[in-house]
Structures are given as structure tokens and as C-alpha cells.
Write a structure and sequence with these properties.
The chain is α/β, with parallel strands linked by helices. Helices cover 22% and strands 31% of the residues. The protein has 3 domains: 268 residues, Spore Coat Polysaccharide Biosynthesis Protein SpsA, Chain A (Alpha-Beta Complex), CATH 3.90.550; 62 residues, no CATH class; 103 residues, Jelly Rolls, CATH 2.60.120.10. It contains 12 helices and 29 strands.
Amino acid sequence: MTKIYPLIICGGNGTRLWPISRTQSPKQFQKVGGPDSLTFFQTAVERHHEDGFADPVIITSVRHRRTIHEQLDEIGVKAQVLLEPMGRNTGPAVLAAAMMLQEQDPDGLLLVVPADHVIRGDINSTIKAMVPAAEDGYVITFGIKPRFAETGFGYIVDDGPVVGHNGLRQVERFVEKPPARKARQLVESDIAYWASGISMFSIKTILEEYSRFEPETVDAVRKAYDKAEEREEGLLLNAIAFSQAKDLPTESAVFERTSRIALSPLDVDWSDVGSWSAMYGIAETDHQGNVLQGDVIAVETQNSMVRSTGRLVTVVGMKDVIVIDTPDALLVTQVGHCQSVKKVAEFLKEEKRLEAERHVGKEQENGLLRMVASDKVDLSQARMQPGQKLEIAPVAGREVIVVRGAVTLGEDDNARLLKEGERIALDDATPTKLRNKTGHQAELLFLNVTTPAVVEDDKVLTLKNYA
């Protein structure tokens, strides 16, 4: 039986769901509902974790490698992980996955699935019904019957049935994010579908079609894959070669140009959850029309969404508002203005505010707590338990201050005991190793005042246990 490999694409910054979503922790890794719900990514993985589907392939930025594995472990799912050194849109991502799977199962099928959508209903029955068409060489894009004239979505126009494949439709054309008048015409035509971002094709087909239309990108991704570095967290594509791939989505690179394209309508509830209004729309409301998540009290409030990730939030006498509270930022907006939230995130990024990049003041792994963070200063606190060992990534200008207890810096003959009240500049060329050899908890402060705090991946401050 032909295997279907779900390819979960974890890209994007999710600026429209700020302040929950940040560049370093985007929408797909946030919880769909309350504190006990799964994340968007976990939901996407579990959706296709059943008979007929192989273990998923995940492709994501190298900066999210730890988050991917943590969230997979939480739901007990195994996956192959491809790591991108930089984003080059969905086209090169799909290509890299196809090249990897070609070596393992050249007759397999790829099911491309966004990591940050919400889907309710039986999607897998339709997908499995399309397997014969994919085996016959069709590039299948799945469409959603539109509920309203949305200008932010792409549309697929139906051109009649495909002979020999029940439920499969020909594609007349694609329409990318039309103006309001055109969107209304498409919806009223009753032959247009929202482009869901979900597609399926054989590994052989996508490699053939990509080679036909974008041979230079195929060559760049092939080199990036052949020179990839095998890491514990996944296969890291070669940065120099991957940067030469054309930055294009699969839709414009192949789908809009190939004669093999076909449409399969999906009968499901679907949302790309592109705003807080959309988040409100997919959630279950109470008798007042409110969505209350976390420690929230609402009095004389209607048709509103209030979400707290920690402290108590109370709202009184409100209507049609969105209130999102996180430890380091608060968003208050009216329902009709949620699409403009990304302007706030963009402004913060221009100002080099860390709140655009990551959550400040939130305890992270190994007890790390970010206390102050800007483009000039980074101050973090960490607690080390007795016997614990930590390794610190090298960054110029970083100091450690022992606030309580004592720790050993370095190993063997170069080891040095740092006692309470002592401070020392850390090595900016090689990782620094700290160990708490005492029987008491140690408290440390890490200070950096010479290099920008908002940098790629984990250069600000990374602590990890070592053996």
C-alpha cells in the first residue's frame, strides 16, 4: 500500500497573533485554546496520526529545533525533522522533503500540511480517496467552500470533473488575494474555493514538475541536501547552497504552471486563524458570547475574548473586545481592528524591542528567567540545583554574577570556584561550563551590555545541561 507522508511546514512569524506569538515562538507553537489544549503544531501532527499515514516529516527553522522535539515528545509522536538555515518559502521546503523521502520510499506520497491552521471534520477520508489520483501523477490541491468574501485568501476556480477520478476537479485558474469586489464575485459564482494550503502529490511527480519549471532551485536544494549536516535534532540543510534557492511558494513555482494540477473539495470547517477575531470565531463561547481562557473574570461583558497566560485578568462592562495578557505584554483591541495587530509587532521589530522576538520575564528551560532585555542590555537570572551542570554559549561581553551560593567555573585543572558576590567575564570564544558542587541551590545573574540582545537563534543566552 502506498504510504502518505504528512509534511508539516512550520514557518512564518505569526505577527497577527501577537503578543502570544513572537518571532522566536510563533503561532504554530502556541496553544489553540486554554492552558490544557494542544498547540496548533501538535494538532496538525495528530490530525494525520492514523492508519494510512506514515510518521510525519517536519521542516522548520533551525531556531525552533528544541521546541519541535519538546512538543512531539509531549504527544508521543516520532518524526523525521529537516532544519532550514533560513526561510526560503514553501517551495524549497517541499523539495528538500521530497529529496529525503525519495531515498527512503520513491513511490510514496507527500501530503503538505500547514502547522498553524484549525480544521474540524473528517479530512482524512477525502485525502485517502485521492491516493489513486496522486499515484496517477496529479498534483492535488484541496479547496474549502468559501463562507464569505475574504480578501486575504487565495481562491481556486473549478473547471469541471476529472474523468476517471471521482471527486477530483479540473482547475481553471488561481486567484491570489483578490480585492473585495472580485472576492464577492468569486463567492457568488459558486465554483470557487478557498485555497487551504493543503496539497498532495507523489514524490516522483513533484520532483519532475519542479525540475521542469525551476531547475536552478532544484539544483540549489539538491546541493543543500547532499551537504546537509546530521544533528541530534534533525538534518540541517547547507546554508550556502540553500540560500541560492528561489524564494517561492510551491503554488507559484509549480501549481499555477503545471498541467497536472487538480482540485479536491474538502467538506470541513477550516480556518487559517490569521487574527484574534478568527481565534474568537473558532472557540466555544459562553451564554454571553464570551471566550474566557485562563484566570479570567468577566462582569457585564459580551461577545469578547479574554485570554490570560498567568495572572488574574478582570473585565467589566465591555463589548466586542479582545484582551490578551502575557507576562510581558498586554493587548487590548476591538474585534474589528484585529488585522492591525501585526502593525504593533512590526513597530516593535523596527524599534528592536525584544517583545517582538521572544517572551521576556518568562522562565525558560533550566530555570532561566529573562529580567531585562533591550537592544543594549540583557539581564537574566538562573538557578542551579545541587549537582547540576550548565553549558553557556559564547557571546562577547557577557558576565556572570553569583548572587547566592557557589559554583565551579570550568573543569579539571582550569576549574575556579565562584562564591557569593563574585563576578567574572565569560569566555567569548568557547562555551563556558558551570557546575554546582554544593548541597544548596545557587542563584546566578548573567549580564550583557555590549552586544544587541535581539539576535538570531539562541545567541542571547543559552543554558543547557551537559554530562
